[in-house]
C-alpha cells in the first residue's frame, strides 16, 4: 500500500479491492469470507465489516462498542427495534453481505472512534462469539496482562462448553497500552473548544445542575440493577441452577464496577468465584476426576468463609457425598461397557440403579444418566421390533408352505398371526400383503359354486337353438 490513508472512503476502497481479488480467484468454486478489520493511527480507529465477524471494544472492563453484523438475524432484530442477543438465532449465519458476494457488495465502515490507554480490542468470527458471551469476554479481562493471556483464557472458556462439534473459530486481541499524544498546538485547539463549551454551559444556565441530577438518577438505577442481579443469583444458587447464578452474579459485579462500589464488587466477585468452583468440581466429579473435584470444593469452601460461609452447606454436602459419587461414576462406566458390548438389558439395569442413587444425593450428572437410560431403552425396543419382524416373516413363510400343500386352514392361521405382529410393528405394506394372501386362501377353502344353466331356459333370441336349424336345400 503506497499511500495508506485512514478515512471511511479509503477503508471502503480497500475492502472492495479485496472483494475483486476474491471474485477473480473464484474460478470453479465461489469463494466467500466474513471479515472484520481495524485501521488505527494510534489515537483513533476505524472498523470495517463484511459479514458477521465482529469487533468488541472494551474500556475499563466494560463493553463500549460492538460492530453490527450484516446478517438476516441482525436485520430482524433491527426491524423490531429491540436489543437482543443473536448468538443463538437460527438466521445468524444467513449473511446479507460478505466478501465474494456476486453483486451489490456493501461493506460497513464506522466513523472514527477515539482510543485511550488501556483499551482492549477483540476481533473474532461467529464460531467464537456464538459460544462465548459478552459478559464472559469482559470478565476474562480481569487479571490478564497481555493479549496472549486473554485469548488463551477465552479459548479455554470456548472449549469448556465441550460441544460435540466445534465450529471453526478465529480470535485476536489488541491491548492499547499507550495511545499517541497530540502536540501542544493541537492541545491548544482542544483547550479552546473546552473553553467554548464552558461558556455555552454558563449561557444556557442550569446545565450543570441538570447533568448532576441526571447522573444521580443513573447511579440509583445502577444500584437497583446491582441488587436485583444479586438477589436473582442467590435464588438460582439455592435452587442449584449454578449456570444462571454465575451469569446473575457476573452482571451484578459489572454494575458494581460502574458504580465504583468496591464492597459489592468484591462481594459479588467472591460469590462468582464460589459458584464457578462448584461448577468446576461437579464437572470433574462427573468425569471421574475425584481428586480434582475435591480440590475445587475445598477452594470453594475456603472462599465462601470470607463472605459469611456462602455456599458452605452445598459444598460440604458434595464432599460428604463423594463416596457415593465414586460408586455412581464407576457404575456408569460398567454400564457403558455393557452398552458397547450390546448387552442392553444389563446396561439398563445398572443405569437405573445409578440414577436412583444420583437422585438421592442430587448428583448433577443425573440428567446424563437419564439420557443414557433413554438411549438404552431405545436400543432394546429396536431389538424387540427386529425379533418380532423375524417371527412374523417365519409365520408368513410357514403360511406360504401350507398354501402350497393346499392346507388352507393352516395357511390362514399362520397368515393371521403374522399379520397381527406386522400391525404391532406398524409395517402397513406387510399387513396389506397378508390381507390379500388370507383372501386367496379363503377363496380356495370356500370356492364359489358355478351356476349351471336350467333345462327350461328360453333359447337365445339372437341365435336360434341348434335343433331348430333346417337344411336350406
From TrEMBL:
Keywords: Coiled coil, Membrane, Transmembrane, Transmembrane helix. The keyword Membrane applies. It comes from the Bacteria. Residues 366-393 form a coiled coil. The keyword Glycoprotein does not apply. Residues 464-473 have a biased composition (Acidic residues). InterPro entries: PPM-type-like_dom_sf, TPR-like_helical_dom_sf. The chain crosses the membrane at residues 190-211. Residues 445-473 are annotated as: Disordered. This is Serine/threonine protein phosphatase. It comes from Lysinibacillus fusiformis.
